[in-house]
From TrEMBL:
It is found in: Membrane. PANTHER family: SORTING AND ASSEMBLY MACHINERY SAMM50 PROTEIN FAMILY MEMBER (PTHR12815), TRANSLOCATION AND ASSEMBLY MODULE SUBUNIT TAMA (PTHR12815:SF47). The keyword Membrane applies. This is Outer membrane protein assembly factor BamA.
Length: 734
């Protein structure tokens, strides 16, 4: 089953070797750490050959224990977190950490050394061995190893031995940074370079040679514990300083002088400056589909400028971030002109189209089916010239989803460089039909939008700020409004043309869009409809949102996140009441968990905020907070995270009313000129709490939460364990 080669196939040495590797991997999964398999051929008549796989199984065993000898500065528990090979815990069903491999053991030795080198132990020595304890289990396994094999032999039939990994450590003494010095410099003074090391070597991005990934580290500082990553950060800092001024061939070497008596290590940086270069011209290679200008506009260098290597690296990252290319390279080529080099940008195109079909489920919309067709390197000018029309860096997407309670169609177009300026143009149209918003009416709305946005700058911190404005004409079609609907529905609901303009400013300092461990996010938006924009709906709305993310326990990847949302909405001019679809609500997965979602009464009978005859009608002032802690789930650490949360908030009927209201009485309002009475309820400030899981199931992140109302002044919202609500939605975080 593990082999690709079958009887009758054309013989291939490469395929036979792959088959041998596949069978070795199969054996290692079964615990045969020393297995060796060799493929041999024997010629037979008729131009055929017989393939024989010679198998040397060795012993079968799994890691049952790891031990450290000689460690004093670090505890065994701390070192266990460093290595990858270790016994499986009972809950780690799919983990292969107890599967021994020789290369993996060597990697773990390097990890332990790297750990100590970053703690100031420059003389660290680590030796590893695999031990077989003399136990009855191991003796039985060794006897069965030599037993004859039948045709139906299963490697699992051989009892596994217990392996013990032993690391013998000689730490040496710990060193702190002594004197930092530089030599070989001519363009910059020594004081200038040393000042750069003290002030700019903060959170420098370096490449970890052991884990083979990019990471951030602070540079060396006198008196601080010596760390090899800090040394690399200091070297990168000096090279970047020269690189900004065009010394792209500058090299920094170092010399360490440890003093065993006082535990200090002096570090001297020797600089080979080389020549200062300017950009001669920029040449793009490999772009068979993407237009030259799409690539050039991401390059923060121009002919005649100083050949800034920092800007060159930033340009390469931007090109990689476009996700149009499988590979991006930048390098310099010599020219006939002294001190001028040509910048070569070499790319490899990849597929940028998207076609997907899927199905989804949420606690609001139930089951839905959807289709998505998109192109993220679209070219509107080639729409009648080639198929698919690609190459201008534009984005186009069509989405349609059909469900039991909704039908949605969306078409969007994005031009990230409108008029060849760093201004994003977005336009599109949509149709949404939903029956779940209320049991008292069915709603359809369709419309279009056009928006412009841009970042405030290319450098930190302005590159984290953006501003935008969007115009949106929409038509709301309300059908089957029932006579027993709440008075607010009857007074504010009807066929409406809404013409609105929304402006926003956004700050995004998160370290990741998918799963943020640190940083903040802020958005302030103001919207106006009607008035000079025409239309039949006259309202204004303001919303402000703030999110923050913090790592509570780095080793266990425990993340705390919090969100605060404030909203205001009111009508003006000829509009007496804000239409219900523009009212502010609270409750549900993206709001206050433990209560029903934010809109509609059938599925939202327990929504937070004002109610008429037990039906939520929304309000003019909203205040919500969400707080949660997440961490990897022990069984599937890379795929599943657990979460605990506590949310709270309120909605008040009137605008600018920030004092939560609690009442249960009879009130009245005018409906088409007629006073109508109703039972009015508001539960005040309400709190929900619960737990959930976050999953990466291959089609995108999903989350499942169970929430309970723990504080409410609304008798319809219930309380206790029997009043739990379940939510199934997309995303890892809010």
């Amino acid at each position: 089953k593990e082999t690709v080669t079958k009887a009758g196939d054309t013989l291939s040495e490469e395929r036979l070797q792959r088959d041998a590797y596949a069978m070795e991997d199969f054996y290692r999964d079964k615990g045969y750490k020393d297995v060796k398999i060799i493929a041999k051929q024997e010629e037979v008549k008729g131009g055929e050959a017989k393939v024989i796989f010679e198998i040397d199984e060795g012993i079968r065993g799994f890691i049952s224990k790891i031990r450290f000898i000689g460690n004093q500065a670090a505890t065994a528990k701390e070192l266990e977190k460093v290595v990858k090979l270790k016994p499986k815990e009972w809950w780690q069903i799919f983990s292969k950490s107890d599967r021994f491999e020789e290369m993996a053991l060597k990697d773990d030795v390097s990890r332990i050394k790297n750990y100590y080198l970053n703690q100031g132990y420059i003389d660290i020595s680590v030796a590893a061995s695999v031990d077989l304890p003399r136990t009855a289990k191991n003796e039985e396994a060794q006897k069965d190893t030599d037993a004859p094999r039948g045709e139906d032999f299963d490697p699992d039939d051989i009892p596994a031995e217990d392996l013990i990994l032993t690391y013998r450590i000689e730490e040496g003494r710990q060193y702190r940074v002594g004197t930092l010095s530089v030599d070989g410099n001519a363009f910059f003074s020594a004081d200038d370079l040393l000042n750069e090391l003290q002030t700019k070597a903060k959170q420098v991005e370096i490449f970890d040679q052991v884990e083979l990934k990019m990471m951030k580290a602070n540079g060396l500082q006198e008196g601080e514990i010596y760390a090899i990553n800090s040394l690399q950060a200091s070297i990168e800092t000096l090279q970047d300083k020269y690189g900004r001024r065009g010394f792209r061939e500058a090299r920094v070497e170092y010399r360490m002088t440890p003093n065993v008596e006082n535990g200090r290590i002096d570090v001297s940086f020797n600089i080979k400056e080389g020549e200062k270069f300017y950009v001669d011209k920029i040449e793009i290679q490999g772009n068979t589909t993407t237009r030259d200008k799409v690539i050039r506009r991401e390059i923060d260098l121009a002919p005649g400028e100083v050949f800034d290597t920092v800007r060159e690296k930033a340009s390469k990252k931007r090109l990689e971030g476009l996700n149009y290319f499988s590979k991006v390279e930048t390098y310099a080529e010599e020219t006939d002109v002294p001190n001028r080099q040509k910048l070569i940008v070499k790319v490899e195109e990849k597929g940028t189209g998207e076609v997907s079909f899927g199905a989804g489920f949420s606690s609001v919309e139930l089951l839905t089916g959807n289709i998505t067709v998109g192109e993220k390197n679209f070219d509107l000018q080639r729409i009648f010239q080639s198929f698919p029309p690609r190459g201008a860096g534009q984005k186009v997407r069509f989405q349609a989803s059909i469900g039991f309670r909704s039908q949605n169609i969306n078409l969007s177009f994005t031009e990230p460089w409108f008029l060849d300026k760093p201004i994003r143009l977005e336009a599109g149209g949509y149709y949404n039909g939903a029956s779940y918003l209320s049991e008292f009416y069915n709603q359809k709305n369709f419309g279009a939008f056009t928006g412009l946005s841009r970042r405030l700058g290319d450098d930190y911190p302005l590159n984290r700020w953006s501003t935008g404005v969007t115009y949106r004409p929409e038509y709301y079609d309300i059908a089957n409004l029932q006579s027993d609907a709440p008075p607010y529905f009857q007074a504010s609901t009807g066929d409406t043309f809404k013409s609105s303009l929304r402006g926003s400013i956004t700050y995004d300092g998160r370290d990741s869009f998918m799963l943020a461990h640190s940083g903040q996010y802020f958005e302030f938006g103001a919207e106006g409809a009607g008035g000079p924009l025409l239309g039949t709906e006259n309202i204004w709305k303001i919303k402000a949102e703030f999110k923050t993310y913090h790592t509570l326990w780095k080793e266990k990847d425990v993340i705390f996140s919090a969100r605060v949302l404030l909203g205001l909405v009111d009508a003006y001019s000829t509009t007496e009441y804000v239409p219900v679809w523009d009212q502010l609500f609270a409750g549900g997965s993206g709001s206050i968990r433990g209560f029903d979602p934010s809109l509609g009464s059938t599925v939202n009978g327990g929504s937070v905020g004002p109610k008429q005859n037990a039906q939520p009608v929304g309000g003019g002032t909203q205040g919500v907070y969400q707080a949660e802690i997440t961490a990897p789930f022990p069984i599937l650490e890379n795929r599943v995270r657990w979460a605990v949360f506590c949310d709270g908030g309120f909605v008040n009927e009137n605008v600018f009313d920030f004092q939560p209201k609690t009442y249960n009485n009879t009130q009245s309002m005018m409906v088409n000129g007629t006073p109508t009475t109703y039972n009015a309820i508001n539960g005040g400030f309400q709190i929900g709490a619960g737990f959930g899981i976050r999953m990466d199931i291959g089609i995108g992140p999903m989350k499942f939460d169970i929430g309970f109302p723990v504080m409410t002044g609304d008798p319809n919202n219930g309380g206790g364990l029997g009043a739990f609500k379940m939510y199934f939605d997309g995303g890892y975080q809010f």
